Amino acid sequence: MIRESTLHPDSAAFRETVPAGEYFLKVVKAGETLRILDLEGNQAADTLFYNAHNPAERYSAVDTIREQGNVYLTAGSKLMSSENNVMLEITADTCGRHDTLGGACAAESNTTRYALEKKCMHACRDSWLVAVTKHEELGMSKRDITHNINFFMNVPVTPEGGLTFADGISDAGKYVELRAVMDVLVMISNCPQLNNPCNAYNPTPIEVLVWN
Ligand SMILES: [Zn+2]
């Protein structure tokens, strides 16, 4: 569902550009609004959310899908935690659909999906592992890297029940906006994927904005 935001970028309290292949880590407080902006189009922002005070409680794709009765995420979607609490709500969306089924790219999936020689290519899972390794204060490790959302990624479910990684439906300047319902730690991998049509084989930067 397309729903435009009423917030102006000039009034944002925080703005940061995240190059493809980099991670982004920030606590967004309850009541604050987070925007992820697809600067050049057809990019994938692979995102994990945690309760900022207890990372054992984290975004749960299965709870979110069950509660909303829809496999796709868009404006109006409430993102549920593993404790079945609402973590964030999508309040604006100019892309219209985001994936939470496809998972993040990893050395393993690059190998099985594309080719054995792709094993050593940088992947989203690597970016998250770098993030938790460099930030020991979070007390997180490999075991905390679980379900994610692929913002801007188009992964339709086929009539046979399969998944297809299809051409992206996002475009330059499209964004998704989320209002935090609890204090959340946001961990984004701006996807470095070179083998996937979702980002037109061309990883590009995103911008992250936060309004108090
Ligand atoms: Zn990726």
Automatic annotation (TrEMBL):
Superkingdom in the source lineage: Bacteria
Species this chain originates from: Marinobacter daqiaonensis
Pfam families, sorted: DUF1989 (PF09347)
Protein name: DUF1989 domain-containing protein
TM spans (from-to): none
Domain DUF1989 residues, every copy: 16-185
